[in-house]
Each structure stands twice: as structure tokens, then as C-alpha cells.
Design brief:
single chain, mainly alpha, two-stranded antiparallel sheet, 2 strands, 61% helix
Length: 360
């Protein structure tokens, strides 16, 4: 779980702890929930979010938060707004977690009442959506289908994306304005016949990853999409001549057209060919040091490459363990360091083997 999700859950839990100290059948109005969320906003940011909020009315809330189990909240209680830049990400994510929870209630009238157990249940649904795990075995997720349905319209694209990740509301989310949400829909293999023509190249690349519509996507105007097609080994006879070097590199990695790509004008393509061990007798003399370094990595022509004018190539020779007795005297400090480290590691292995043999 990344920090964004973790802090959203922390924010929701901070809010929920205000209520869970009461019995499960205790009722709170939506107005109370909004007011308490504004108090927490004040504590976290040092600013009053709602001018109509009577902070004095919630002194009991503030008093209880002094004993909050989250040390971050206790710290904020003692020093509103201190060093906010350092904690901005956590603060923003915690507030978003509170808001994601609260949005499930504020569509109702202010005098609508909810029991604490309902709040807990809905928080468990949000926890499930964010993490993919059920926090409470007693929570019947199906009971809260209305919550899930409403979250399809959540203003936070992260929440909509998480919904799509678990296959909820795909018929609506396939048209979502946020590309990350549509990517999540594509990963569910839903609506591919529409998403293959999506204006976002990231969405179309996701469709290509799935292997859908490759006969169309092989001619996609975006190189990143064509690269995904090449990764699947499709249309290589066409993509070997692609104008984009990264697409041609991917074709090389598929071990296709190497006899042509060995002479590619791009060094990254020739380096990919060398990495496959193809045409090393030619590539050892390549004008690009990066290509020659790949040749050294194949342990080919080390007797020649040990004298290469490029220190990076000689460093790779040292990493293979070849003629370390020479390379510890290399004029480049970095090459000498690698050679000395290799010799030390070799000596450690020798001593370990000697010790193991002595103990037998």
C-alpha cells in the first residue's frame, strides 16, 4: 500500500474514532459529521474550513483528540500548523480520506441520522476499495452496494480508479474523464472495442498490453503504443523498420531482424543486439562506448576491451573479473575501485571455502 492510500485510511480512521467510542446504536446527524470533520480540518491545518462551524460546540471532540492513538494527531494538537510543508502530503491525503468517507453522507439532509455501526460499515467498504482487503470479516460488502454505486461519481479520480480496479461501475467508468480511470477499466478487459480508439495513448497502450486489436494498434501514431505491440511479438516484420528507435530496440529484444538491426543508426538498438550476444565480432569495434560495454558484458574480446579508451567499458571488463591484476593499476579511479572490490570478494569466497573444508 503506497503512502497516499495509507494516509487516506489514517484520515478516515481519525474521523471515525470520534464516533466509535459511543455505542453502535448511537445516532449522529449529517450536520454533526460535517461539524466534526471541520474541527479535525482545523486541527490538521490550523485553518477553519467552515465559517459557520461553532468550534466551541465541539470542545469535547478536541479534548478527546488529545488522547488520539495516532502520535501525528497528538503532535498537531499541541502545535497547529507547525512545519506544514514537511507534512503536506500526509495532511492532504488524510483530509482526502476524511472527505472520501464524508461524501457518502453529505448527499443526505443535515438532519438525517446514522448509527455508529453504519459509519463503521461504510468505512470498511472504503477501506476495501482503497486496499483490496476486507478489514472486518463481519462486514457484508454486498450490503453496501449503494455506497459502491455512489462512489462511481466520487470527485476524487483515485477513488474512481480504485473502484475500476475491483470491477465496479465499469459501464460508467469506461467514459470517465480521467485517463488513469480508463486505464484501470481497460485492465479489467472491459470496453476494449471503445478504448482502442481512446484519445489517450496511455489507454491505447494498455489495450495493446492486453493483446486486443493488435492489427490496428501496430499502426498507432504513438510510438509507445507500437512498442507495446512489439513486446507481444506482433507485426515485427513491419516494426523492424519503425521510425522510432525505442520500437526498433524492442523488436531487437524479440530476437527478430538482428542481421539488419546490427547496423541500425541508433546506438541503443545496436546495444540491444549486443546484449543478445549477436554479431559481437562486429560490435566489439562499434564507435559507441555503450555498445562496446554490452559486448564486454558478454565476456567477449576482453583481451581487446581491457585497453578500451572508455573507462565505462574497462569498468565492465573489471566486473567480469578479467585480468584484475592489470586493472587495479588503471588510470581511472573508478575502474581501480571495481577491480579492488572484485579481488576482495574473490578472497572472501576463497577464505569461506577454506573454512568450510577445514570443518569437514
Amino acid at each position: 500500500m503506497d503512502d497516499t492510500k495509507k494516509y487516506m485510511i489514517e484520515g478516515m480512521d481519525v474521523f471515525l474514532r470520534i464516533f466509535t467510542r459511543y455505542p453502535n446504536d448511537k445516532e449522529f446527524t449529517v450536520e454533526d459529521m460535517i461539524g466534526i470533520s471541520n474541527v479535525i480540518y482545523l486541527v490538521i491545518t490550523g485553518k477553519d474550513r467552515g465559517e459557520s462551524t461553532d468550534i466551541e460546540k465541539y470542545n469535547e471532540v478536541l479534548k478527546n483528540m488529545v488522547n488520539d492513538p495516532d502520535p501525528f494527531m497528538r503532535e498537531l494538537m499541541t502545535d497547529f500548523g507547525y512545519d506544514l510543508d514537511r507534512r503536506k502530503n500526509k495532511i492532504n491525503n488524510m483530509l482526502e480520506g476524511i472527505d472520501a468517507f464524508l461524501r457518502n453522507f453529505n448527499k443526505y439532509s443535515n438532519d438525517r441520522k446514522f448509527m455508529v455501526k453504519d459509519m463503521i460499515g461504510i468505512s470498511n467498504v472504503i477501506y476495501f476499495i482503497i486496499t483490496g482487503k476486507n478489514r472486518s470479516e463481519s462486514t457484508d460488502i454486498e450490503k453496501y452496494n449503494e455506497v459502491l454505486k455512489n462512489m462511481v461519481n466520487d470527485p476524487n479520480p483515485l477513488m474512481r480508479e480504485l473502484l475500476a480496479n475491483y470491477g465496479y461501475g465499469l459501464d460508467q467508468l469506461v467514459n470517465d474523464p480521467c485517463e488513469s480511470v480508463r486505464v484501470a477499466v481497460a485492465k479489467q478487459k472491459y470496453g476494449l472495442e471503445r478504448l482502442i480508439n481512446d484519445p489517450s495513448e496511455i489507454v491505447r497502450a494498455t489495450v495493446a498490453e492486453i493483446g486486443y486489436g493488435l492489427d490496428q494498434l501496430v499502426d498507432d501514431p504513438d510510438a509507445g503504443v507500437r512498442e507495446k505491440v512489439a513486446e507481444l511479438g506482433y507485426g515485427l516484420e513491419r516494426l523492424v523498420d519503425d521510425p522510432d528507435k525505442f520500437v526498433r530496440r524492442t523488436v531487437a529484444k524479440q530476437k527478430y531482424g538482428l542481421e539488419r538491426l546490427i547496423n541500425d543508426p541508433s546506438e541503443i538498438v545496436r546495444a540491444a543486439v549486443a546484449e543478445l550476444g549477436y554479431g559481437l565480432e562486429q560490435l566489439i569495434n562499434d564507435p559507441d562506448a555503450g555498445v562496446r560495454k554490452k559486448v564486454a558484458g558478454q565476456r567477449y574480446g576482453l583481451d581487446q576491451l581491457i585497453n578500451d579508451p572508455d573507462a565505462g567499458v574497462r569498468s565492465m571488463v573489471a566486473m567480469t573479473g578479467y585480468r584484475l591484476d592489470i586493472l587495479i593499476c588503471d588510470p581511472e579511479r573508478h575502474v581501480r575501485y571495481i577491480a579492488e572490490s572484485e579481488l576482495e570478494e574473490r578472497e572472501r569466497r576463497r577464505q569461506k571455502l577454506f573454512q568450510e573444508l577445514s570443518e569437514k
